[in-house]
Amino acid sequence: MTSLNLFISSGSQSNDAYTQQVIKSLQEQMPPDAGLKLWGIGGQELKKQNVEIIQDSSIFDLNDPISFLKNIFSLIALENKLIQELKTRKPDMALLVNNSIVNLRLAALIKKHIPFCKVIYYIAPQVWAWNEKRIKEIPNLIDRLLTVLPFEEPLHREFGTSAKFIGHPAVWELIEEDGKSFNRKKFLSSLEINNSNKVIALCPGSKQREIEQMLPVFIEAAKDLIKRQAKLDFVLVRASSIEKELINKILKQNAAPKGLFKMVDNQDLYKTLKSAEVAWCHAGTVTLQAAYCETPSIIAFKEHPWIWKLIQKLRRITFMGLPNIIAGGTICPELIQENCKHEKLSLTTLEFLDSTEGLKDLKAALAEKVKDFFVFDLNPASIVAHEILMIHQINRTSLENQIHMREQAKKNSQKTSVEINTDPSLNRQKI
Fold first, then answer.
1. Which comes out higher in pLDDT, residue 286 or 411?
2. Are 78 and 105 in contact (CB under 8 A)?
């Protein structure tokens, strides 16, 4: 295989982990003698994978229109810088990961300035959720779209995009955990929780503004519940992007009783979800992870009122939770915005805990309508790497064939010219 000059846009710091896995798989799959040049936009963690970072993505948190507007001038400056870098470096391929606000614009720039560069998009833009007009533009911008939700592949193919469902990387992390032995009693004992107690898992989000909105609601609901059920424990999962200091600050501000919450890192998410009777989840990827674990969840979402008004204008879907979106109906109850109150959360939880048959039915629905779509054997990152190398080889072969055909046509043209000049019968009569 020839060398590969790959431009990468992790889009935002939260996507670095997914991008890292792709790079590792790419390095494993490439022949030792093949050159691999990696450069682009990403966080500091990507440097460990020999990626030359020309722009640190930590300055951007562009997962909503508000953060886009806040960073508009930084984006314009970055765009001009990237245009020059792309023209100078001439990448063979581009790997764009998630974050459509940044990466769809990048795809357009690449196609305009480096038309021979093939664009691979990993974790498809959620056009089904908001601003659906973008779906018609994607076939002209993306050469290969790798989706992480099952309904996205046929949706994009309908509009002419080369799309492929490969599974969700966040679910793959749990699939790997499935292969290991898990002892609920041992795990809870490490947290000083009695195995006979009922456990509530708290997953308040992975961004600061999500924690600030959701955790106070969770704290008040937990205080309410503990008055009603003595044998009840709460395990709070801290995302790797959230500092412990922020969690502790909010717990103190909201007068959380000391020892009420056992805090674990995200690496214990699988064990926590498998140990819990019910999970309180911010509407995000964790709702899908809870569904894979067949853990009944209550999906909560709350935003600043004026941000919520903007979201309402843009969004085109009824549900906020991925399990409900995938199932096409309500499996897990949703408490959204005005309904996201601690009284409703505690009451809904009590209804769950008091209904053994209801929890059993919910687990069955999660397994049938959600989990079954995500039982797969290959790491999505490995599939992305394979797609990159396959498309690069096809593109390189195509370019080589074009060069060969042009050279052959030139030789034939020169040969014909010589024949005309040396064959008297083909010479034109001079006037």
1. 286
2. no
